[in-house]
Design a protein that fits this description.
Shape: extended
Largest sheet: none
Number of helices: 3
Helix content: 55-70%
Length: 67
């Protein structure tokens, strides 16, 4: 059986995905907490709770807007 090639998100490469995984795999608790806190202070992002059953619809809306 032929192995199916994974499709990467637009703009991502295998190298960028490995770098991201490496970043989080090697992050200590203090660094992770600082990153989380910075995300909540951002004026460019919003953090909100979404009911689980609506997550697929929200993801589709975001993907559609992102192009």
């Amino acid at each position: 059986m032929k192995r199916r090639q994974n499709k990467l998100p637009k703009g991502w490469t295998a190298k960028s995905i490995r770098a991201l995984a490496d970043h989080y795999d090697n992050q200590n608790e203090t660094e992770a907490a600082a990153e989380d806190n910075a995300a909540y202070k951002s004026t460019r992002l919003t953090i909100m709770a979404v009911p689980v059953e609506l997550v697929p619809k929200v993801q589709k809306m975001i993907a559609k807007r992102a192009g």
